[in-house]
Amino acid sequence: MKFFHRHKHTHEHEMLDCEAVMRQLWDYLDEELSPDRMAAIREHLATCARCYPQYEFEQSFLTALDRAQQEHSNPDGLRNRVAAALRAEGMSEI
Amino acid sequence: MTDDSDVKRERDRHFQQEALSCLPEVTRFALSLTRNESDADDLVQETFLRAYRSWDRYEPGTECRAWLFTICRNQFLNSRARVQREVALEAPELEARQAAMVHDSVRDSPLEHTWLRADLAPAIQRALAALPEVLRSAVILVDLQDQKYEDAARVLGVPVGTVRSRLFRGRRLLQEALLTYAQDAGFVASDQQTDRGSDR
Known about the structure:
The complex is a heterodimer of chains A (94) and B (200).
Chain A: E1 8-9, E2 16-17, H1 18-23, H2 25-29, H3 35-47, H4 51-67, H5 75-88
Antiparallel strand pairs in A: 1-2
Chain B: H1 4-18, H2 23-34, H3 37-53, H4 64-79, H5 92-106, H6 121-130, H7 133-144, H8 149-156, H9 160-184
Helix pairs in contact in B: 2-3, 2-4, 2-7, 3-4, 4-8, 5-9, 6-9, 7-9, 8-9
């Protein structure tokens, strides 16, 4: 097994190994898991020297992706344009 | 007693309150799709016009932002006459494991901290633009627009499992492209570069 250690980390509700955590890391970062599974992975990451750097790597990637989002240079101009188009369509005064 | 003009005024007020308040998010979504401000402006305007005309079909209480994203993306695909390219996808779990391999290839090297560089943004935008549309839309919806998998699935008209596969594949391709870019751009000194992908 090249990428995952097989350390077991016990949890009140369930036991997860590194491979299980890696399989669900994106779901964890996206907060798409059940509260129990979120807690189990959080606990595993807090004590696993192998998985935590992977978690940090993926988390900082998502942060970089979010920060790179392109912003409109003239949002007020676009808002006025959309409002004018809607008024022309018959919409009440905005 | 209310007359038609009161009904229409109430309908318009509701549209303004629910839909127009999403203008900043729809603008960012359109910009991510078109990668061009002028095209994004046209797309945003058309999205809101179509939403206004179809407002009676909007179900109050549902996620208005996701409804607008659906209209926006459909309009984008129609206007470009794009046929969605088929992308062979692995199971989400396999994609997640392959993402771990990306990190494994740079672990303990200077490239491990590439994402922290402030000057990576243009490269991220280019890499995002280069993704196949089906992967790009999944990444934009979840990572840039903070949509839950279920909402993204509704926008894209696919099962949640497909969203996960597309999202995880998209993220992995982005990471690979960005790490290659960082290495080629000399973000790390040549004597510090790792032999990415080699056995460790």
